[in-house]
Amino acid sequence: MAGMWAKAREMAQMAPPERNRWVDFLRALSILAVVFGHWLVAAPYLDESGAVQGGHLLGILPWSQWLTWGFQVMPIFFLVGGYSNGVSWGAQLRKAEPGHKGLYRDWFASRVQRLITPVFPVLLLWAVLAFGMTMAGMDRANVSMATQLALVPVWFLAVYLLVTAITPLSLKAWKRFGWGSFAALALAAVAVDWLTLAHGVPYINFINFLFVWVGIHQLGYAWQDGKFGSVPMALAWFAVSLAVLLGLTVYGPYPIAMIGVPGAQITNSMPPTIALLALGMTQTGLVLALEPWGRKLLDNLSLWTATVLMNGMIMTVYLWHLTAFVLVMVLAWLAGGIGLDVYPGTAAWWWTRPVWIALYLVALMPMIATFARHERMFGPIRGGRTVPRLRVVLGVLAICIGLAMTAAISIASPEGLTGVRLWVVALPFVGAALMGFGPVYGWFASERE
């Protein structure tokens, strides 16, 4: 760990002075909030018969649903993504040589590689575990529950890749229409919710995965362009957005919880609603109002080094934190259910949370030490040659479908000899290979574009 800190400190000292350190800090903060939120809200316990029940804190303690306004910070990640993608694509355009044909394909393939490479180890590990548990005779429902719980965070990557894929279009829309590009997406999200809630149109609400998240992504462009350039402007945005959020949830039809609650008829996150969009707008106003203070705070080398260190392992922490959770739960169960006999939400349960979170951290540390290096293992895309456009499209579709199915239906199968949905596991690998990277990319390599 000392070596990682020393490397992070070296990188922190090399950061150019014009870099907006608040962007990096918010990226790290949002992932950490999600991690601790997951560790808090998942509340398994042993019932009177000794069976493990998958308790959910938000369903057991309704008042805790308000906590999701602080812990559901994926909107901040998309806000930061808009800022970073705008900067990155703009730099790509400026340094491009005249007549370069593969500009977008090279840029996007590189972004995909950085996000997806850390997924391969955790996906392979759980495929092997699911196979092993099935062969050992474990109940397939329990295998599926454990596997899906550990891998459910990958849903975010599927959506984020699609949002990133249209960066040139969304940025062009921002440059041409400004706030109008955000307003159009917000109105489209309102229309989708209206059709869903008022008219019961099935499945149309899934379109809001794009309307809501691209909308928040647009706010990142606004930030980059200085549209939130003053603290009063950011605070006004925060106040108005908070009023809208309260109106939609406290007085409107949307639930308070910004993640799914067992038994709830409406979820604000799967797929996202305009209430989640309002939360993202509220969080945007708040974090940008704090930006001058935060940037001054990050002049402290130790804090900035910690931020650099976290950003260097951010995907590892995100992808493995629920594997650490499952590991601790299994060990507690094997030890006779120690600690699992406390019912969630009781005083004893709250007092023991620091102990459990410390155990999750201890379990996560070896995973970070082992797998964080995969976040830095970025080889050349097809040896530096431009990837054909069709392969980029097919590749990203394969990756996104594979990740979406991993989160939605689990890689564990209730049928079949292996107990694993091999096609779900394979899709991200095939997609990476089509795009020119990954463990099996050589299968698809060709000498001609």
Describe this structure in words.
The protein is an all-alpha fold and 449 residues long. It has one domain. Helices cover 67% and strands 1% of the residues. It has a two-stranded antiparallel sheet. Strand 1 and strand 2 form a beta hairpin. Helix 5 (74-95) crosses helix 12, helix 10 (167-177) crosses helix 11 and helix 17 crosses helix 19. It starts with a helix and ends in a 14-residue tail after the last helix.
What's the layout of helices and strands?
Layout: H1 2-14, H2 21-41, E1 45-46, E2 52-53, H3 57-60, H4 68-71, H5 74-95, H6 103-116, H7 119-135, H8 140-151, H9 155-165, H10 167-177, H11 179-197, H12 208-224, H13 231-249, H14 274-289, H15 291-297, H16 301-312, H17 314-334, H18 347-351, H19 353-371, H20 389-409, H21 422-435
Antiparallel strand pairs: 1-2
Helix pairs in contact: 1-16, 2-5, 2-16, 2-17, 5-12, 5-14, 6-9, 6-20, 7-8, 7-21, 8-17, 9-12, 9-20, 10-11, 11-12, 12-14, 13-14, 17-19, 20-21
Short description:
The chain is an all-alpha fold.
Q: Strand-residue fraction?
A: under 5%
Measure the end-to-end span. 43 Å
User: Would you identify the regions where 5 or more consecutive residues have pLDDT less than 50?
Assistant: 378-384, 442-449
Radius of gyration: 22 Å
Q: In the residues, how many domains can be counted?
A: 1
Give the % helix: 55-70%
The chain-level structural class is mainly alpha
* Outline: globular
- Total beta strand runs: 2
* Helix count, DSSP H or I runs of 4 or more residues: 21
What's the story with the biggest beta sheet? 2 strands, antiparallel
